Amino acid sequence: MKKNAKKILKKLKKRLAKNILPVVIYCFMRVLYSSLRVSIVGREIPDPFHNSDRGVVFAFWHSMLLAMAGAPYGGRSMHVLVSRHGDGELIGEVMRLFGFSLVRGSSSKGGGEALKELVTLIQKSRDISITPDGPRGPAEEAKPGIAQLARLTGAPVIPVAYSGSRLTILKTWDRFRIPCPFSKIHFVVSEPLFCQEGEDVEAFRLRIETALREVTARADAFFS
User: pLDDT tens, 26-85?
Assistant: First the structure.
């Protein structure tokens, strides 16, 4: 009886996570977004690539996931890299409700398959969105996958960050940011990064990591 009860409880939790909780979070985010006052620097940066029908890799830290569903992507459809872990299932369902397409995989599970799929999407001129320190950190340390993707495809990596006039910072590994209702948020889109001729993956990874830290500092400085 106890085993059956545990199985039933486990199934209910899965159903809640997959069918109900994502809708609750999506509705919350929609209401939250409608109350925010948004400013953007660098909105035009992706335009030359979109005008020439080239795919772009947008990069931002895992802590900024919540607001990035409304980030300045330039009006293109977006494929989001989401982990195969339990939290990735929830995040993926929420992103799907916002109209994003999903690619499942991470550095610890399904990374090779995900990389192949991402390369194919870039070759088809699709845009990609990646949190290079996810899904489990360390925070603000880029993993090599994003550098490998851009090196293989020649796609630009465009770092994006946001900050807010009032933020709730959770006590999670990534110090997850939640904008407070009726606050101001400020997006910064940085200049594109390309893998240079002869540059190895590690050197390019470090440049991406540095650029993400710099664009985050620029966003934070807006409200300091």
Answer: 999 999 999 999 999 999 999 999 999 999 999 999 999 888 877 767 666 789 988 776
**What whole-number percentage of the chain has pLDDT above 70?**
86
What residues pair up with 161 in beta bridges, in sequence order?
188
| C-alpha span between 127 and 105 (Å, rounded) | 17
Domain that holds residue 118: 2-221
User: What integer is the mean pLDDT of 159-173?
Assistant: 96
DSSP assignments along 137-181, one per residue:
--TT---THHHHHHHHH-PPEEEEEEEESSEEE-SSTT--EEEPT
Nearest residue to 162 (alpha-carbon basis) of 132, 140, 185: 185
CATH number of the domain at 28, please.
3.40.1130.10
Domains in the chain, number: 1
Measure the CA–CA gap between 93 and 18, rounded to whole angstroms.
7
Distance CA 91, CA 73 (A): 19
